[in-house]
């Protein structure tokens, strides 16, 4: 039986390849626990469409789960900027919450 990841991988470099396919593949990889590969797919999605709010949000999450908090914070900040510019206020709001959590977690206790 073919997995979702395998079906999506089979579509790479085909006529349907693009930001949505790479984003969907990244989601499938995250579900399988392959964070490093998911980061690559989300980055590829953003190479296709740098204004894809959902890919910024997913990239931030993957980077955070991969222990790359500073990069995750950068991704969320860029995603907030993109989402706000596109009028995607819900995505901007969600990424703002995630960015604040990372900022708070990175502060020394005092």
Reconstruct the topology from this structure.
Elements: H1 4-11, H2 19-31, H3 35-48, H4 53-65, H5 69-86, H6 89-106
Helix pairs in contact: 1-2, 2-3, 2-4, 3-4, 4-5, 4-6, 5-6
Task: Give a verbal description of the structure.
- This protein is mainly α.
- The chain has a single domain, classed as Tetratricopeptide repeat domain (Serine Threonine Protein Phosphatase 5, Tetratricopeptide repeat, Alpha Horseshoe), CATH 1.25.40.10.
- Helix content is 76%, strand content 0%.
- The protein has helices at 4-11, 19-31, 35-48, 53-65, 69-86, 89-106.
- α2 runs parallel beside α4 and α4 (53-65) packs antiparallel against α5.
- The longest helix is centred in the last third of the chain and has 18 residues, at 69-86.
- The model has no long low-confidence stretch (mean pLDDT 94).
Report the top-level CATH class: Mainly Alpha
How many DSSP-defined strands? 0
Please give the count of helices: 6
Classification by helices and strands:
mainly alpha
Question: How large is the radius of gyration?
Answer: 15 Å
Number of domains: 1
- Taking the alpha carbons of the first and last residues, their distance comes to 53 Å
Q: Which shape, going by the Cα principal axes?
A: globular
CATH superfamily descriptor:
Tetratricopeptide repeat domain
How much β-strand is present in the residues? under 5%
Per CATH, which architecture? Alpha Horseshoe
Helix-strand sequence:
HHHHHH
User: CATH topology, anyone?
Assistant: Serine Threonine Protein Phosphatase 5, Tetratricopeptide repeat
> What is the helix content?
over 70%
Overall mean pLDDT: 94
Largest sheet: none
């Amino acid at each position: 039986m073919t997995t979702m990841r395998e079906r999506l991988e089979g579509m790479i470099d085909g006529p349907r390849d693009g930001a949505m396919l790479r984003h969907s593949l990244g989601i499938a990889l995250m579900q399988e626990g392959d964070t490093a590969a998911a980061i690559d797919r989300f980055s590829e999605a953003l190479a296709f469409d740098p204004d894809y709010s959902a890919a910024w949000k997913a990239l931030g999450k993957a980077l955070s789960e991969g222990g790359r908090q500073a990069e995750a914070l950068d991704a969320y900040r860029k995603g907030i900027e993109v989402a706000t510019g596109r009028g995607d206020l819900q995505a901007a709001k969600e990424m703002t919450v995630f960015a604040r959590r990372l900022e708070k977690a990175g502060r020394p206790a005092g």
